[in-house]
Amino acid sequence: MLKKAYRGIWETAIKKYSDSAHFVYELLQNADDTKATWVDFRLEEDGLWFKHNGSVRFSISDPDNEDEDSETGNLGHINAITSIGNSTKIDEQKIGKFGIGFKAVFAYSMSPHIYDDNYNFKLENYIVPNEIESLNGQRAAGETVFYFPFNHISKSPGDAYTEIEDKLDSLFQPILFLTNLQKITWKSNEKEGIYSKRILNTEQFDNIRADLTEVECVENEVNKKELIWLFSTGVSHKQLKSHHRIYVGFFVFDQKELETGYTYEAFCFFPTKEETKLGFVIQAPFLLTDSREGIKAGEQWNIEIIQLAAKLAANSLPILKTIGERNKTYLLNDSILELIPYKESDFVDVGSKAKISFKPFYTEILKKFQADQLLPGRNGKYYKTAKSYWASDPELAELFSDQQISKLMGNPDSGLVFVSKGQKQLNQANKTLESYINSIISDTLEPKKLLRRIDAPFMEAQSDEWLLKFYAYLGGRKSLWDDKEKLAQKRPILLNQDRKAVVPFNDDLTAPNIFLLSERATSYDTIYKPFTEDEEALDFFKGLGIGKPDLRAEIFKTIIPQYKDGFNYDDKDKILAHFDSFLSYYDACPASLQSDYLDKLQETCFIATRKANEPDTVYFCFPESIYIPSEKLNKYFAHAKEVYILDEDYYLDFIHSPRKSSFYSFLLALGCSNQPRLIDKELLVTYENKEKFALEDIEVSQTYVANQTITDTILEGIEEAVSNINPELSTLIWEYMLFHVHGKSSYSLESSIMGNFRYVPKWNQYLKSQKFESTLSSILKNDKWLYDTEGNLKSAAEIQREDLNEIYTSQDYDISAFLEFLGIESPEDDLDLSEEQRAAT
Length: 841
Fold this sequence. Notes:
By secondary structure, the chain is of the alpha+beta class. It has six domains: 4-170, Histidine kinase-like ATPase, C-terminal domain (Heat Shock Protein 90, 2-Layer Sandwich); 190-371, no CATH class; 377-453, no CATH class; 456-506 and 519-544, no CATH class; 553-674, no CATH class; 679-840, no CATH class. It has 31 helices and 34 strands. The strands form nine sheets. Strands 1, 2, 3, 4, 5, 6, 7, 8, 9, 10, 11, 12 and 15 form a 13-stranded mixed sheet that branches. Helix 7 (300-327) runs parallel beside helix 8, helix 11 (423-429) crosses helix 12 and helix 18 packs antiparallel against helix 19 (572-588). The longest helix is centred in the middle third of the chain and has 28 residues, at 300-327. It starts with 9 loop residues before the first helix and ends with a helix.
């Protein structure tokens, strides 16, 4: 039976690699195992020189004890490389068994040469060592030199040269995860290069060590340096009782930014061909396939080590955050999404026996994001899931600050995360990433969601600068205000002249609540002036449907309703502005609409007045109760207590302007009077009132008692004037009565001055009218208010026409009718006129 050293077939050792030049990695691993800190390759046309400064010298052990020595780790190096299956390495962390790995060189050389302090030999027939001469000064003491002549029968020297040169030129991080090796130099006839590494900084975070490592690659004097944060922790193999380190590494630019754009194959000291779908590197002592290129699927050790590496990767994220915060570089930012695994379907199930699964990296990192305060916001802030929101587009994120988001969402100390990644854009370009982000945030925010939360206090608290940006944002998104919902038209997003927030339109969106500035004063809310001076904002307002105010609409819909309930009559500026609007529309109002307009104003208490007995108090009254002052009218009402005279001082700006004539014309049209009014007073139908007017004997129907009305007539102010009578007041009473008599026949005059009692007679059901002496009629006929030619006061019953003082106008056509009413002159008595004739005169 053959010895264990000769079991196996050499072709298996040579042909197991898809890449024949993979033996370069085997040489590097073996050099690292000997504690070498540097290696050097020299590629020549007919062979490859390789040397290192490893401190472990070649040894040889008793061939008769190879089986036992192999188990105990005492097998000599020469014994190992001259056999297949034996190795001096008992630590499974090593890349492979020395014998099998070294046999890979036989793909290029049939007689590898080895020069050491102790031995100089070459291998022939794969396993036969033959002693050779030393290099005579070409090897320094303590160095180990290998020479591989290109003499393989199946590989020409030219092919061997090209393949090895390509391999040396394209090594990827060949010493990053080796324990001892710090530098590789290589040189061919046309190229040369260096691979090196050095640790710049080491920190400990609980059980995780962080090494900032600089790796350098120099090719033909072109230098490329990279930095990588390596995070590692110790693991143990329970069966072998061996101890190892696993790593995850994040490449960084200038210690300021994570490097993105790449995914890496898994490392087992050197790159395998296992695609991880990760944007960071992982290193672990995997159990590899025979080709050294794959990780064995279904192996419990590999499953466990991947789970541990995944936890290490997840736990590295808070460390990256801490390092970035400390250095103000904020390494953990939106770019982390380009490094982490976010597509679960990229990975097979963990228990797969067909392919190794890296799914734990997806699971552990997702859980970490959901549990820790890691979601990157702005200005170096990080948020937990419950405090994080994601904007639908980067422009929205640029518009709203975290403080504004916290306020609108009612979630203190919350903010936007992943602000460079708009949700809508990802929805179109990468739905998987969109779904991943949605699984680690509190909510996605789109413009309408924020618009619905905007209220008046929020808008009023914002700066002009921000609001202009807000309007520009809305202006570029018509869907927020010009779609079926028209949301922006229903929220208090506009500021008025007092910088108070206003909803643009009424509830049914039929009329605006605010307008652009007008050339005239207006009672409408108008948009805050500084905003209308910004062209972009102005375009938005116009697009929204905001224009200059329509005066009629303003008066009917905005101004008049203000006076209905709880109006502040202390706001003189507003009242005068309203009056200006009333007057302006009166001047411009079409004749066909004027009657309705005046009727509406007559129902509005908006004109400033004063009373003669309270000159320091302003009263606001309905137009038809007001008198326009004049010298005569002021004297007439001097003693009246409840008569309201227009306060002309209140309206000086109108009176002392070109609009004076229009001002007074407007007041007269409203029903303000410059003559004392004849007033019909509806009195309660009481026995006292009926007795007062000698109506108590009229029998009325008890069925229609409620139909009775007593209407008394008075000339406003006459009672006070007669009580304080003097020639001037007497003349004014005469003049004002003639004003009311003008154009009236005796009959119509009597109808306008006499009182009227309407009732349903007893035993009847139809209304009947009965004239009676009104208060005015009684005063005019019975009180002493007329002066005779001697200057004596007389009642109408005591004086004749020819005895009237000359202060009374006697040439007026209407005097006769008035005198007849007073009983001073009765022409019909002389003419004996019938009732019909009297009514016609």
